[in-house]
């Protein structure tokens, strides 16, 4: 029996637009999945949808099925209060509401942490001592595992690298101003490096507000200005990797999220990073998430299994 063999388990990945439920066998092979829209109107509707998805998993695999949840936002470890900008449950007592909805509390993890946890257990960061999972999508955030286990967090935050400031030296290098961020501040890394930031960089360089896939297609066709825009993006993203390396010192960084699906993105970032690091800083290995979009829900299921085995999660 390998260390990954275990019990059948299920996960929920809750984002701003959909709640995905996925069932896995004991070897973490996916068996079935179902997506429903995320209710945006009220906490009651939200927890009803969660209960429906958990009920679907239990109908397939039994009432005792271990289930874990990955979601955008966080649950404060001390109070159990949910904090999230994209779900209608901010301020709700998560364990109490889940118990009310599905009969028992379920372990909950931030979705960036779930990416790192999934990839550090059977994925692209298997065996890494310090594994970072970096989501480059509509937002930018990271998770962190030590020897395959989620790193303890005081306030429940993931690695909020997206809302750290973009270094002034990087903005000066590219002649960029302080761009506003969804968090209400300006100059955050996310404002430049997330999907909307790519389009804004393209616009800044006179290409129009091209979304990342179209920009990548234009670069692939040999358009020098599109290639230049992606190089600027990679240079700014490398500043985020530099902050991660200087603070967390991971041996592996796994890339997830929509932008990670641009062709050659790991190679592009690996090429940009050395020039941004302080001399003598070790380079992490950059890899794409092995489980792609499903890594978060896989991490949630692993968390459910870990909790069922008696771990304190
Ligand atoms: Zn911000």
Automatic annotation (TrEMBL):
GO terms for molecular function: ATP binding; metal ion binding; N-acetylglucosamine kinase activity. Keywords: ATP-binding, Carbohydrate metabolism, Kinase, Metal-binding, Nucleotide-binding, Transferase, Zinc. Its EC number is 2.7.1.59. It comes from the Bacteria. Pfam families: ROK (PF00480). It is an enzyme of class 2 (transferase). It catalyses: N-acetyl-D-glucosamine + ATP = N-acetyl-D-glucosamine 6-phosphate + ADP + H(+). PANTHER family: N-ACETYL-D-GLUCOSAMINE KINASE, ROK (REPRESSOR, ORF, KINASE) FAMILY. This is N-acetylglucosamine kinase.
């Amino acid at each position: 029996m390998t260390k990954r063999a275990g019990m059948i388990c299920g996960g929920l990945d809750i984002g701003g637009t959909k709640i995905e439920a996925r069932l896995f066998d004991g070897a973490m092979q996916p068996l079935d999945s179902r997506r429903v829209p995320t209710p945006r109107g009220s906490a009651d509707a939200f927890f009803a949808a969660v209960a429906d998805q958990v009920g679907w998993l239990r109908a397939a695999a039994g009432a005792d099925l271990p289930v874990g949840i990955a979601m955008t936002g966080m649950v404060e470890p001390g109070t159990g209060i949910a904090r999230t900008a994209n779900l209608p449950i901010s301020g709700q007592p998560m364990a109490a509401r889940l118990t009310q909805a599905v009969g028992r509390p379920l372990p909950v993890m931030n979705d960036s942490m779930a990416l790192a946890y999934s990839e550090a257990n059977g994925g692209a960061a298997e065996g890494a001592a310090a594994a970072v999972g970096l989501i480059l999508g509509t937002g930018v955030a990271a998770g962190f595992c030590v020897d395959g286990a989620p790193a303890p967090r005081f306030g429940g935050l993931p690695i909020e690298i997206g809302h750290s400031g973009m270094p002034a030296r990087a903005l000066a290098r590219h002649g960029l101003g302080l761009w506003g961020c969804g968090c209400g501040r300006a100059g955050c890394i996310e404002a430049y490096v997330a999907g909307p930031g790519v389009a804004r960089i393209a616009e800044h360089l006179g290409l129009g507000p091209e979304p990342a896939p179209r920009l990548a297609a234009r670069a692939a066709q040999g358009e020098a200005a599109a290639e230049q825009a992606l190089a600027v993006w990679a240079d700014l993203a490398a500043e985020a990797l530099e902050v991660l390396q200087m603070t967390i010192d991971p041996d592996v960084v796994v890339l997830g999220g929509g932008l990670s699906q641009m062709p050659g993105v790991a190679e592009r970032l690996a090429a940009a990073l050395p020039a941004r690091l302080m001399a003598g800083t070790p380079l992490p290995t950059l890899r794409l998430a092995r489980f792609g979009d499903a890594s978060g829900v896989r991490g949630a299921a692993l968390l459910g299994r870990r909790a069922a085995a008696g771990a304190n999660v």
